Amino acid sequence: MANVLIVGCGGIGCDLGLALAEQGHKVYGLRRNIDCIPEGIEPIEADLTNPTLPLPQNIDYVFYTASAGKHKDAAYYQAYVAGVKHTLKALQGQNIKRFFFISSSSVFGQSDGEKVTEESPTIGNNFSTKRLLEGEELVREATVPTTIIRFGGIYGPGRTHLIELVMQGKAHCMEDVYSNRIHSADCVGIMMHLLNMNEQDATQVEPLYIGVDDQPTLSCEVYEWLAEQLNVGYIEHIEPTENSRMQRSNKRLSNAKIRATGYKFKYPTYQDGYAELIG
């Protein structure tokens, strides 16, 4: 069994930690406020802005799942640049089997509904994507084996914002714009799957994966389906302006690469995942 460090151990980090602990791994969870870390995960109270992080020795795997607490450049810098630098520095001298960095599919800037794979170009067209790409570059330059996972829009228990908007009659969608999503349980599943792959044969784990379900879908289709399931009336459709099209991503992300590793999605479509949440 492995010693696993989860840096920025929030909701998905805690779910991952508990699942790994159930498999017999020793799991450490680092975050500023450790009150939310459940039993089964060894808490480490630390701030990622601190250049000298108090990390345990003999760590085998690291999952960097930190997120920016605010939608501000300074917060993104602290979470995805300074935090990565400080974590990698604190791990120097340890024999890390793999460092997993959780990024976002927002770094793909395609806006015409293109199919996007891991080989597609990225663009830092705002402060959030610039900071994410800076963090990714730091990870790629690390002296330990690394893998970046770019997740799409995450939904699941505690992440039901879209359902709430539809129920409150506040939802509106932009015509002809694709969206991509993944259930939080599959985020955890993919991370565990890649760790297990690495344990069996590290050469089979690639440096980059996209994490989304099987079904890139027009946003209006998702909203209309939810409205039907919730017995809610009209969803406002907005015709996008040229400017809004330029600013909003519109792409169809492919999960072929992670599927080719043998990972089987628990919720392969948004209907599967949302149906369970709606109950």
Question: Which terms summarize this structure?
Answer:
two-stranded parallel ribbon, seven-stranded parallel beta sheet, 279 residues
Account of the 3D structure:
The protein contains nine helices and 15 strands. It has 279 residues and is α/β, with parallel strands linked by helices. It has a single domain, classed as NAD(P)-binding Rossmann-like Domain (Rossmann fold, 3-Layer(aba) Sandwich). A seven-stranded parallel beta sheet has the order 3-2-1-4-5-7-12, sandwiched between helices. Helix 1 (11-22) links the parallel strand 1 and strand 2 (26-31). The model has no long low-confidence stretch (mean pLDDT 95).
Q: Summary?
A:
With 279 residues, this protein is of the alpha/beta class. It has helices at residues 11-22, 73-90, 127-140, 161-167, 184-200, 219-229, 242-247, 256-260, 270-278, and strands spanning 3-7, 26-31, 42-45, 61-64, 98-104, 114-116, 146-151, 153-155, 172-174, 178-179, 181-183, 208-211, 217-218, 236-238, 251-253. Helix 2 links the parallel strand 4 (61-64) and strand 5.
